[in-house]
Each structure stands twice: as structure tokens, then as C-alpha cells.
Design brief:
Structural class: alpha+beta
Largest sheet: 8 strands, mixed
Number of strands: 26
Distance between the termini: 55 Å
Radius of gyration: 21 Å
CATH architecture of the largest domain: Alpha-Beta Complex
Bound molecules: manganese (II) ion
């Protein structure tokens, strides 16, 4: 019996894909427990001999070409790896300790869209910034609200983030000032990676949308709340959002998440026919947010769950393409901040510290309403059912001072 790492995020049930850098060369790779394997080494063991694969497909800077092979092939690659490790000791193939290798951004991201699909988050923000009696805007229950973000500043976990500067309007002032943002926040999100393309002018029907989703990562959509508040009217987020987003390095496939399907929250009023779907199209994925202060003390500031999402990924994709907008392989569609129903499950400091009115005491005794210079924010995500565990590892980044 092999050690199948059942208690690890990267158990035999997971077999995610990522890009590892070894001696300056990038490889498509997977992870079992704390060991990283290149698919080229696994190919050398004959694992994929029954498949016709292009030469050099596993030596790549990104997963895009691999994903382009289609789900039939990529699923079979994943299953072949799973079968191999069930029968063979991991030491039979070259491997690299996960803590000692560098992972790079898993996909070349063409376009990035950020949704706003947690009812609790949208309600909280509506209460704080607009009107408690009408927290949700009239469109919110009828369509998954989203905006087009910027892909160039999406970075892999472990990349430091610099506090941005910008325009803000101080309280009671009538003119803006320029300087470092004073309200840097995290947003606890998950992102999915498009794995199949639709042509311009074609839509992706909601009941086919799963075919177009390759897998998921953790996603911290860093936000500058003071810049956001001043700039966002009328066209939505801009410089408050595009200075950085952090993505976890391992893409967990939809297949690996299959055991954790759950139903979405009930949608009332009934949505339009092109958004209707009955069944389990959401996933029970536990999410943690940890802030580590410069003193290296950890504080768990949120424990949420992907299952709280009001709008599912397939509804987001159906809505995004209902006008004929074309998706491309490697596009990233993020969930929006994932807040749960209770304050300990809110997905941003804006909500946890309620606009600065309820500062959070950290384990080193200091308090936070937003993120301080030197703080490290880590998202974790994992699904568990019986003996099966599938996780995402970490999505982590340290906030550096503005220069
Ligand atoms: Mn966001």
C-alpha cells in the first residue's frame, strides 16, 4: 500500500496542474503530498504512451497549450497519473520538494473578469456605502454583476505587493489628495480558468458551461478601498483594483472537485431561462484567511466557504457569453469576494472591521482595520468528505510599503 497523502491538500484524489521552474526551465507539473513531479518525467515512465501528445507539450511557460488539448486528453493525463501513484511508489520518479521549488503563474491570462456573486458581500457593501433598506441594487438578484479587470497585474502566490498610491477624497474634504492608499484590503475569492473557447457571436448555454471550465485557484483580489470609494462612480472599479491580484499556483480540476458538489442557495425571484439550472453546481470548499504580522504571528481573520456563492460559475459563464462575447483558453473569471452569513466568515477587512468601526485584534496585540505594511495575507482552501481531501494549498503575499 502506497502513501497516498490522504491528509494533504494534494492527496491522490487531487492531482492538480501547475508550472514549476527547475534550473530556469519551466515544466507542466503536478503535486502529490509535498512533492512536485514534472509531467515530462512521468511521460518518461510511459504513463501517457496510450495518448497522442504533441512533442514538448510539457515544457512550457504556461498551461494554456496543455489545456488546449481538450478535457478528454487532460482528464486522461490526470487519471493516468492517479493510477500510476496508486500502484507505484512516488520515489520511482524524480521529484522535487514543494518547499524548495519556485512555481510560476499557471496560465497566460488573456482576459480577467471579476464578478460580485456573494449575496452577503454585496449586501454588506450596500449597507455600508449606500442604503441599509436597499442594500442590493435592483439588478443584483437577476444577473451576476461583474466587471472587466486587468490581467497584466495578476501575479503568482509569493510575489510581494507594493502599497499603491492614488487619489482619495478625505472625509469632509471637498478636494482629493494624492498619496499612498491608507485602506489596503484583501478580497477572498476563487477564480476559474476557461478551458474551451466559444467563437465570437456564440453563446455558452448554462447546461454546457461546465465543459468550458478547466479548474479553479484561490484568488486574492487586492483592493484599495479609499481609492475605490472616490473613483468608482460611474464606471466601476479601476485603479483601486488593478495594482495586483494574487493567484495560487496549482489549478485544481473540476473533476477533482466532483465529490464536493452542493446545491447553490435558492434563487428567489426566479431567474431568466438562460440562467436557470437545477442541481448541484456549487462546491463545498472551506476557505481561510490568515494575516501574519511582521512579528510572524498568525491570526485567522475569516473562515468562509465557496458554497455561499449565490451565482454559480456556470451561470457566470452563461451570462458573460449571452451577448456573444468570446472566451479564450486561459481567461480568468473570479467569483468576487466570498462572504458567509456571519461576521467571522466575511471575505474582506472592509466587512470584518465594518468600515474601520470594529478593528480586529491580532494575536500580537496590535489591531487592524485594513492591511498594514509588512503584513502577509494568506488564503487557504480545501474540501473534505470522509477520507477524501482535495485542497488548493496557499495563496499568499506580503504587503510592502509604498516608496
Ligand atoms: Mn474582487
Amino acid at each position: 500500500m502506497q502513501n497516498l497523502y490522504n491528509h494533504s491538500d494534494f492527496s491522490i484524489h487531487n492531482i492538480p496542474f501547475g508550472i514549476v521552474v527547475i534550473n530556469g526551465q519551466t515544466y507542466v507539473s503536478t503535486r502529490l503530498g509535498d512533492e512536485v513531479f514534472t509531467l515530462e518525467d512521468l511521460q518518461g515512465k510511459g504513463l501517457f504512451d496510450h495518448l497522442t501528445l504533441p512533442n514538448g507539450i510539457f515544457r512550457s511557460n504556461f498551461l494554456n497549450d496543455f489545456i488546449s488539448l481538450g478535457k478528454k486528453i487532460t482528464s486522461e493525463v490526470r487519471l493516468s497519473i492517479q493510477r500510476y501513484f496508486k500502484q507505484n511508489n512516488p520515489d520511482s520518479v524524480s521529484h522535487y520538494p514543494a518547499g524548495e521549488v519556485t512555481m510560476s503563474l499557471p496560465v497566460r491570462i488573456g482576459d480577467y473578469t471579476d464578478f460580485y456573486s456573494s449575496r452577503e458581500h454585496a449586501t454588506n457593501v450596500g449597507i455600508m456605502f449606500r442604503d441599509p433598506a436597499n442594500a442590493l441594487l435592483p439588478n443584483w438578484l437577476h444577473l451576476p454583476v461583474g466587471y472587466h479587470g486587468r490581467s497584466s497585474s495578476i501575479v503568482v502566490s509569493g510575489t510581494d505587493i507594493k502599497r499603491p498610491k492614488g487619489q482619495t477624497l478625505p472625509v469632509d474634504a471637498d478636494k482629493p489628495v494624492f498619496g499612498p492608499s491608507k485602506q489596503i484590503d484583501f478580497e477572498l475569492e476563487m477564480a476559474f480558468i476557461v478551458g474551451k473557447e466559444n467563437a465570437l457571436g456564440e453563446t455558452i448555454p448554462v447546461d454546457k458551461a461546465e465543459d468550458y471550465i478547466f479548474g479553479l485557484t484561490l484568488f486574492n483580489d487586492w483592493s484599495a478601498r479609499d481609492i475605490q470609494k472616490w473613483e468608482y462612480v460611474p464606471l466601476g472599479p479601476f485603479l483601486a483594483k488593478n495594482f495586483a491580484s494574487t493567484m495560487s499556483p496549482w489549478v485544481v480540476t473540476l473533476e477533482a472537485l466532483e465529490p464536493f458538489r452542493v446545491e447553490s442557495p435558492k434563487q428567489e425571484p426566479e431567474v431568466l431561462p438562460y440562467l436557470q439550472c437545477n442541481g448541484k453546481y456549487n462546491y463545498d470548499i472551506q476557505l481561510d484567511v490568515i494575516i501574519s504580522t511582521a512579528e510572524n504571528k498568525d491570526t485567522l481573520v475569516s473562515h468562509s466557504n465557496f458554497k455561499y456563492m449565490y451565482w454559480s460559475m456556470i451561470q457566470q459563464l452563461a451570462h458573460h457569453t449571452v451577448n456573444g462575447c468570446n472566451m479564450r483558453i486561459g481567461d480568468v473569471l473570479a467569483s468576487g469576494t466570498i462572504s458567509g452569513p456571519t461576521p467571522d466568515s466575511y471575505g474582506s477587512m472592509l466587512e470584518i472591521a465594518w468600515k474601520g468601526t470594529k478593528p480586529v485584534t491580532m494575536s500580537d496585540g496590535t489591531t487592524r482595520s485594513f492591511i498594514a505594511d509588512g503584513d502577509t495575507v494568506t488564503l487557504k482552501g480545501y474540501a473534505e468528505k470522509g477520507d477524501i481531501r482535495v485542497g488548493f494549498g496557499e495563496c499568499t503575499a506580503t504587503l510592502l510599503p509604498s516608496e
